[in-house]
């Protein structure tokens, strides 16, 4: 074969190979019961190694903590060490540390001073993301709890949000295992709603989802899509139109810039369009809903919260809780890291469930598995 002919054949094979790969990376679509289902067959299911690192696939993890609550810092430091991820710290803010001149002009002074101080602490975290030029970061509050399988949960979640992003861009993620086109990943919340005209994703048979009787009272009705009902063991991931409770979320650099503009800097009267002078989580939910931010969230929430034993007043640094002594408890997670710290330190193989009516009461963390899900298009 002549040299030129050989080069032509080689070039033809390369073109054919690239075309085949691009074809395989597209979601395959088939008709099912309404809404339409699209089975995701994108980048390899194992292409999420960065989530298994010490920062869960983002550049840094921050926890907000008041200097006066070293007990809560102890919880996060020990729990994260046992889950093999590293946390940096953002100092919480007290009302006495906030100069009245620093309040945004549209802040609703009907809210508690402690609520603005909490909002300021989150803004400080976002300021740090922008100042340090972090591509992405997780910000959590210091009473968070998470499942012992959080890295597996986040791999499954990343699989879903990447698939949803590719519905719009058809671009393979390059910067983040969670994709490149998001502002907020609202991983821990106490209620959320979805944009019902956008596709959503369902992951079936997730063993880390609490049964509905263990959901705390939520501040939003469960998300619904016409013609489809979420099964008890399925996790829904969608483009969020609202959420409340900012206990655990990821933010991109672009998202941190936009939130800092909307909730503090307010260029060109932006606050009138975006912010209502509310608590941080309420304002964040609003700007997810009006399209200023692109937000994704799971339902039920992936992360939950932990309450130490003692007076009920220990549970909140914002609200004046009253009540008698309470024991340790966790909410929102089936296999709580905080409730299993003693078992993990002892080297026991199994983790005990938060409640006694789950399908598997004692589980070996390595035996927890997640199934692939599918995209559904609303009617």
From TrEMBL:
Q: What is this protein called?
A: LPS glycosyltransferase
What is the scientific name of the source organism? Penicillium vulpinum
Q: Which keywords fit this entry according to its UniProt record? A: Glycosyltransferase, Transferase
Q: What PANTHER family would the database entry show? A: GLYCOSYLTRANSFERASE 25 FAMILY MEMBER (PTHR10730:SF53), PROCOLLAGEN-LYSINE,2-OXOGLUTARATE 5-DIOXYGENASE/GLYCOSYLTRANSFERASE 25 FAMILY MEMBER (PTHR10730)
Q: Does the keyword Cytoplasm apply?
A: no
Key word Transferase present: yes
The organism's taxonomy opens as: Eukaryota, Fungi, Dikarya, Ascomycota, Pezizomycotina
Which InterPro entries does its entry note?
A: Collagen_mod_GT25, Glyco_trans_25
Give this protein's Gene Ontology molecular function annotations: transferase activity
Q: Which family does it belong to?
A: Belongs to the glycosyltransferase 25 family.
